[in-house]
Amino acid sequence: MVGFEVGAVPFNSEGWGPPETSSPLLSNHPVNVPFAPFSRSDKLGRIADWTRNYNPNRNQNNPRNAADSVFDFTGDDTLGAVAADEDSSFRLVDGKPPPRPKFGPKWRFQQQRNQLPQRRDEEVEARKREAEKERARRDRLYHLNRSGGNAPRREAAAFKSSVDIQPEWNMLDQIPFSTFTKLSFSVPEPEDLLLCGGLEFYDRSYDRVTPRNERRLERFKNRNFFKVTTTDDPVIRRLANEDKATVFATDSILSTLMCAPRSVYSWDIVIQRVGNKLFFDKRDGSQLDLLSVHETSQEPLPEAKDDINSAHSLSVEAAYINQNFSQQVLIRDGNKVTFEEPNPFANEGEEVAPVGYRYRRWKLDDEMYLVARCEVQSVVEVNEKRSFLTLNALNEFDPKYSGVDWRQKLETQRGAVLATELKNNANKLAKWTAQSLLASADMMKLGYVSRVHPRDHFNHVILAVVGYKPRDFAAQINLNTSNMWGIVKSIVDLCMKLNEGKYVLVKDPSKPQVRIYEVPADAFENDYVEEPLPEDEQVQPPAENEDGGEANAATSEVEAKEIKAEA
Questions:
Q1: Alpha-helix residue ranges (DSSP H) falling in 100-176
Q2: CA 257 – CA 156 distance, rounded (Å)
Q3: Quick check: helix, strand or coil at residue 268?
Q4: In the predicted model, what is the mean pLDDT of the chain?
Q5: CB distance 488 to 437 below 8 Å
Q6: Of 186, 454, 496, 559, which has the fewest Cβ atoms less than 10 A away?
Q7: Going by C-beta distance under 8 Å and a sequence separation of 6 or more, which residues neighbour residue 110?
């Protein structure tokens, strides 16, 4: 076997490591390689310590500096030259990410001031000034949005009052919305006093509508809709003469009161105290007949009334969409569900939109009852059991205002679309939910209707229809039934302490509060009746079929006035 020759290992009796250079083992040691002998008492340090800064000019006589390293390579000139060359090419790479700058308005403006202008021509300077104005506007909106719920939500957009406050009116009280949020009152289940009108069945095929197989919104001009106030309702007059209750109202008026803390736009309700009875009315041409759009949104709408995206134009368009949608999703085969009495506002032989009126009574206390006219728009029958539905439509006018494109998000992110609508239209959705709860509807159907083109406010398409149970939806949007009735009960108690006469409850256009005024008995009698859906805005789009099924949704307020006069 071949043996392994270890070789001679010299013994150093004076310390660790090899002996002196005189040893034959180190006779051929390179001349320029330094060697530092050490003893057993020396502490071994790190051979290569990259965490320490190398200072060639340090004091060699300092024992603390000498102890920093076991090896000292400063005595050799050749090695020093090599080290100097290597140090000149060495760069420390920092793996940490750079600190993120704080992107605020101050940072942006400071950066803009510190930047040297690239070009001096007037066009570039004008663009910079416009960009500064746009950034300032966005920053102002951002801080307004974060300042709280009761702060002004839009930039300097002064909303007008829904009714002109006359100097002879006497303001009796003003109630901030902060007191409404603390109220609570429970009412027992209501009882149906009378059912009027008739309903058509809901077409379930619309539940399968998606943005990919959208349906064109039709127009119905041969069906009349009625928005009759409380005191002009012949059924309520009859119930009042029979002393069925003390307080009388409609579901639209009650829902406005119940959801008052969520409102931003101004509204008004006329209150009449006759004997020991109280009537809540709306004025002819009131804002309660229209539907607000983007009322609670943070993005301001155009202020010009002629703009198709102004608040007034969108309200008219929303009412037009809502009426047509409620008729298109019905099965028009002549099969109807009729109630005890016919529609109290329709003339004989007149074609009206199918609607069911439920006159219901709630007990407020031992001596006070409330009667309200509640509406349902359709009915479905499952296992020989009928369920009432309310039909309403949300409308998309321009995705850049909401930030969510329905055609892209409805199928994949329907919850995000609904959340955006709850943010931008919190008051409108809360009122629809309150009306469904008042009518004890089994289901509320919400349609998503969008414009064919953002600049075309005549033609629309149905993108989806979603159903919700009113109580579940109320819990989802944080709508408390006890708080709703607490607001109504507090206003009723306040009005019952007033003398006989006429009063008006007005939502302040700029502050979260309501004011109650005492007005003359002949106030609002000669008000101009404004058509909620002007004829010239609906006739312009051409008809899309020949059977006459598509037409505009004209609201027959003139005929309604004639019926009121006859009643």
A1: 105-114, 122-146
A2: 26
A3: strand
A4: 78
A5: no
A6: 186
A7: none
Could you tell me which residues come within 8 angstroms of residue 184 by beta carbon, excluding any fewer than 6 positions away?
480, 482, 483, 486
Q: Dihedral through CA 394, CA 433, CA 198, CA 358, nearest 10?
A: -150
Residue pLDDT, tens place only, 116-160: 444 456 667 777 777 777 777 776 665 555 544 444 444 434 578
How many CB atoms are closer than 10 A to CB 81? Answer: 10
The CA R_g of the chain, rounded to the nearest whole Å, is 40
Q: Is residue 84 part of a domain?
A: no
Contact 551, 351 (CB under 8 A): no
Q: Percent of the chain having pLDDT more than 70?
A: 69
In this structure, the strands spanning 369-376 and 355-363 are antiparallel
pLDDT 10s digits, 247-261: 999 999 999 999 999
Query: 300 and 154 in contact (C-beta within 8 Å)?
Result: yes
Q: In 3-state terms, what secondary structure has residue 505?
A: strand
Q: Which helix (H) or strand (E) holds 37?
A: none
* Residue 246: strand pairing partners: none
Name the residue range of residue 349's domain.
170-566
Decide: residue 19, CB within 10 A, 0-12 exposed, 13-18 middle, 19+ buried. Answer: middle
CB 545 within 8 A of CB 220: no
Q: Which of the 8 DSSP states describes residue 341? A: B
Q: Across residues 410-434, what is the average pLDDT?
A: 93
Assign 294 to helix, strand or coil.
coil
Amino acid at 147: S
The CA distance from 383 to 398, in Å, is: 42
The two beta strands, 501-507 and 268-274, are antiparallel
Write the single-letter amino acid at 469: K
Q: What is the pTM of this model?
A: 0.67
Question: Crossing angle, helix 105-114 and helix 122-146, to 10 degrees?
Answer: 160
Q: Quickly list DSSP for 538-565.
A: TSSSPPS-SSS--------HHHHHHHHH
Quote the tokens at residue 287: 């804002």
Give residues with Cβ within 8 angstroms of 440, minimum separation 6.
Answer: 190, 358, 360, 374, 388
473's tokens: 């939806």
Residue 76: CA count within 13 A, CB half-sphere: 14
Q: What CA dihedral angle connects 325, 329, 332 and 335, to 10 degrees?
A: -120
- Report the phi/psi class of residue 156: left, alpha or beta, with left for phi > 0 and alpha for psi in -120 to 50: left
Both tokens of 444, joined, read 């509320």
Does residue 435 come out as left (phi exceeding 0), alpha (psi in the -120 to 50 range) or beta? alpha
The per-residue pLDDT for 153 is: 44
Residues pairing with 369 in the sheet:
363
Whole-number pLDDT of residue 521: 87
Distances from the Cα of 311 to the Cα of 121, 136, 295, 543, angstroms: 40, 24, 8, 27
In the chain, the number of structural domains is: 1
Query: How high is the pLDDT of residue 86?
Result: 56
Q: Quickly list DSSP for 171-205.
A: EEEEEEHHHHTT-----PPPEEEEEEEEEEBB-GG
Q: What are the backbone dihedrals phi and psi of residue 377, each rounded to the nearest 5 degrees, phi first?
A: -105, -15
Phi-psi region of 560 (alpha: psi -120 to 50; beta: other; left: phi over 0): alpha
Q: For residue 333, what pLDDT is reported?
A: 80
Pairwise CA distance, residues 395 & 461, whole Å: 10
Residue 531 domain-assigned (yes or no)? yes
- Is residue 421 a part of any domain in this protein? yes
Q: Which residue has the tokens 């507090």?
A: 490
